[in-house]
Amino acid sequence: MTAHLDIDQLHTFVAIADTGSFTRAADRVFKTQSAVSMQMRRLEERIGKPLFVKDGRGNRLTPEGEKLLNYARRMIRLNSEAIAAFDDNRLEGTLRIGTPDDYADRYMPEIIVRFAKSHPNVELFIECEPSSDLAQRMARGDLDIALVTHNPGSRASEVVRTEPLCWVCSVNYPLRENVPVPLAVGRRDCQWRQVATSGLDAVGRDYQVLFTSWSATVIASAVLAGMAVGVMPESALRPGMKVLTHADGFPPLAPVQIGIMKRPGLSPSLTSAITNHITACLDNITPVVLNEDLDKDTKTLGRYPRLLQVGALSGW
Fold first, then answer.
1. pLDDT digit string, tens, across residues 63-79
2. Are residues 72 and 150 in the same domain?
3. Which of 25, 127, 178, 214 has the least C-beta neighbours within 10 A?
4. 43 CB contacts (<8 Å, ≥6 apart)?
5. Which of 85, 103, 120 is the last residue in one of the domains?
6. Separation of alpha carbons 100 and 9, rounded Å
7. Is the pLDDT assigned to residue 316 strictly greater than 80?
């Protein structure tokens, strides 16, 4: 394949992948359905492989399409960064962003780097606090954007990612029956702590909170040391951890939703720019190789086929 890929075609390709439909994608990219179909035929000719197959009334990606999707997103982002670098009307100002410490550790490096390249005249202030504290600061107008654990019962946020919440322990942790489960969890107002303890109460399993901290690093350390069981999202799991399932006596947990809070009155262009960067980064978490012990844990791989990924999350 010697022909260059067309950015406009890649935009349309990503829109189809995101919506699952040529018709809905046409609305998103402001083209007719026939124009979208023509673009995809030309893109398939350039790639030399089929990119879509019919799936009922919609369309899904072929394995070749899945392979192209990651490249397409990266090429579109790089193209946008290149254009922004020469834009005399590029964004300027200050943006105050709040995030829990583990979200900062996992996601903010890529968000900051890409945003700074696209918008070098925007100054970023990053503050790390638990989600509940960030919501209060947003209410006071202290922050412009906050990346939080979505909790519609106590704060409003736009959901940008959903993933499983898992019971985890060390691969060397000896599970014992008829003894209280030692827990390493967040503070009393931590949403995941409440979900975990309510779940154990519901199945009548005794537990004892041994470690309490708002820091995801502390919780992960206690788990990896084989001293306690914790609850973490799928993307927080690390080599050396094992997922505990119903077969181990642990109830299923509701999935985690990551949300974005935005200050009313914030510049729409700034809001759109940083929100797009955050969403793109959350959509492109890079998996890492599992350690040998966790690879052999068929229960873990059976229920969580996308394990593992770099980083740690708590969202407290």
1. 999 999 989 988 988 88
2. no
3. 178
4. 5, 6, 9, 10, 13, 51
5. 85
6. 37
7. no
What is residue 84's predicted lDDT score, i.e. its pLDDT?
64
Residue appearing with tokens 């390709």 = 13
Q: Are 9 and 25 in contact (CB under 8 A)?
A: no
For residue 28, the model assigns a pLDDT of: 86
> What one-letter code names the amino acid at 211?
F
Q: Looking up tokens 């809001």, which residue turns up?
A: 271
Under 8 Å between Cβ of 220 and 232: yes
**Residue pair 216/102 in contact by the 8 Å Cβ criterion:** yes
Rounded mean pLDDT, 116-133: 82
**CB–CB of 171/195 below 8 Å?**
no
DSSP lists the bridge partners of residue 56 as none
Strand-pair category, 256-262 with 145-149:
antiparallel
The H or E element spanning position 34 is helix 33-47
What residues are paired with 95 via a beta bridge? 124
Q: What CATH number is attached to the domain comprising 58? A: 1.10.10.10
| The pLDDT value given to residue 91 | 67
Residue 234 located in a structural domain: yes
More confident call, 235 vs 52: 52
Q: Which domain holds residue 267?
A: 93-162+257-283
Question: How far is 279 from 22, CA to CA, in rounded Å?
Answer: 22
Looking at the structure, do residues 225 and 297 belong to the same domain, yes or no?
Answer: yes
Q: Which amino acid is at 292?
A: E
What residue type is 92 in one-letter code?
A: E
What tokens appear for 294 in the block? Answer: 């966790």
